[in-house]
């Protein structure tokens, strides 16, 4: 029944692993979602908006106060001068990515991105009938080979899809890497679409560099983010995209026929939350950095090879030292054996061999949950010895 171009994308690993975790009662470190709520003021503002009658279609481009708050956020954190009229509110970052790809790419066009990638990228590119050109990010640093990146571009490159901080590897691209990506995009007259949903989750004193801040890039860059990660409300699905008016208009043309609008009561509440003091944002990163260390140390202790996470709330491991060659097989049996769920990185790769022995864990959970997960995972060491 399903159209040919979507046949490789029938299910998502997140749904499969969350269902398995539920069935087995395992601690779910697979799908990335926090197990605590976001700022109390955000929750009470949204509830008040629902009770106060903000329950009908908001404007197609988003409510004015949220568009202004996003523009102000870009100025406050990155010194970007954003016109609120060029901010489009979307149904999560997922819709912004889909609308951008569908608006700008069609059959015959190529999209350059990095693998492993967030799973919606490949599905969305397939939906547009365009071609994916994925450049490898390899452990231990998960950086890319500049020559490989150069070779991925062609006269058919229409779009470059960049994710920094990067899911699943936890890489935060530095200025030099981003500059090369930008130069190649400019050389091939390609649009840059940058997914920055983990922008406030960077560790060890690093800084997130938005692509739009690099010289000459703002004119060809669509910047995407969302409320789900920053405010721990992944189920709200409110995101945004901004960039040059002409590109945003193109995205809006598609967006209006995907969902039209969404999140009426949430939008004004999020506008207020974006103005929370710096202490909220730094507190989020400090807290997650501690959780990263707690889980990474525990995984190392249990016998995994653990790669450094510079940003996001994920840590990638290699399971070879535990006697496994296939991360997917490892993940399918882990909940039953040990009582913890994780996701295999191979499903995020166009070339599954690239992530064959890699497994991703999420650390956006309460300390006691991570501690319990670590103590369960410690049993793996005994299994290997036995
Ligand atoms: N991009 C990346 C890299 C993600 O990890 C996620 C996670 N959920 C999304 C986009 C989707 O964000 P949203 O829930 O706002 O659609
Ligand atoms: N972004 C989250 C992750 O990567 C959840 C994605 C999803 O459930 N689609 O785990």
Commentary on this structure:
The chain is α/β, with parallel strands linked by helices and 386 residues long. Helices cover 42% and strands 15% of the residues. It is built from 14 helices and 13 strands. The protein has helices at 13-24, 40-51, 64-78, 92-104, 119-128, 146-152, 175-187, 227-230, 245-258, 266-274, 278-301, 327-338, 367-377, 379-385; strands spanning 27-28, 87-90, 110-115, 131-136, 157-163, 191-195, 221-226, 239-242, 305-306, 314-318, 340-341, 343-344, 358-362. Strands 2-8-7-6-5-3-4 form a seven-stranded mixed beta sheet, sandwiched between helices. It is globular. It starts with 12 loop residues before the first helix and ends with a helix. The mean pLDDT is 97. 4'-deoxy-4'-aminopyridoxal-5'-phosphate binds at residues 92-94, 118, 163, 167, 195, 197, 226, 228, 234, 237, 239.
């Amino acid at each position: 029944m399903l159209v040919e171009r979507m046949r490789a994308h029938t299910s998502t690993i997140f749904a499969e692993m969350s269902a398995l975790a539920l069935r087995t009662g395992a601690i779910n470190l697979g799908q990335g979602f926090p197990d605590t709520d976001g700022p109390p003021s955000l929750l009470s503002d949204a509830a008040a908006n629902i009770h106060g009658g903000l329950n009908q279609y908001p404007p197609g481009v988003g409510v004015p106060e949220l568009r202004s708050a996003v523009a102000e956020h870009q100025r406050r954190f990155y010194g970007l001068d954003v016109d609120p009229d060029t901010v489009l509110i979307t149904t999560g970052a997922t819709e912004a990515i889909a609308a951008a790809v569908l608006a700008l790419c069609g059959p015959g066009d190529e999209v350059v991105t990095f693998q492993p990638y967030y799973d919606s990228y490949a599905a969305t590119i397939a939906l547009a009938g365009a071609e994916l050109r994925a450049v490898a990010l390899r452990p231990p640093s998960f950086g890319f080979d500049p020559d490989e990146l150069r070779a991925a571009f062609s006269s058919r490159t229409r779009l470059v899809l960049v994710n920094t901080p990067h899911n699943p590897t936890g890489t935060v691209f530095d200025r030099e890497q981003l500059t090369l990506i930008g130069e190649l995009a400019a050389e091939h007259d390609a649009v840059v679409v940058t997914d920055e949903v983990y922008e406030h989750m960077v560790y060890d004193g690093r800084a997130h560099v938005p692509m739009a801040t690099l010289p000459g890039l703002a004119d060809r860059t669509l910047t995407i983010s969302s409320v789900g990660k920053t405010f721990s409300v992944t189920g709200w699905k409110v995101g945004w995209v901004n960039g040059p008016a002409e590109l945003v208009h193109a995205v809006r043309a598609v967006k209006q026929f995907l969902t039209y609008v969404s999140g009426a009561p949430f939008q004004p509440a999020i506008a207020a939350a974006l103005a929370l003091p710096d202490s909220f944002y730094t507190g989020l990163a400090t807290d997650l950095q501690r959780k990263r260390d707690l889980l990474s140390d525990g995984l190392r202790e249990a016998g995994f090879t653990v790669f450094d996470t510079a940003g996001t709330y994920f840590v990638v491991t290699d399971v070879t030292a535990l006697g496994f060659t296939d991360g997917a097989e490892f993940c399918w049996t882990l909940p039953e054996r040990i009582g913890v769920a994780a996701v295999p990185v191979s499903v995020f790769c166009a070339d599954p061999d690239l992530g064959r022995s890699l497994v991703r864990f999420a650390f956006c959970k309460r300390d006691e949950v991570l501690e319990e997960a670590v103590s369960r995972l410690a049993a793996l060491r005994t299994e290997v010895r036995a």
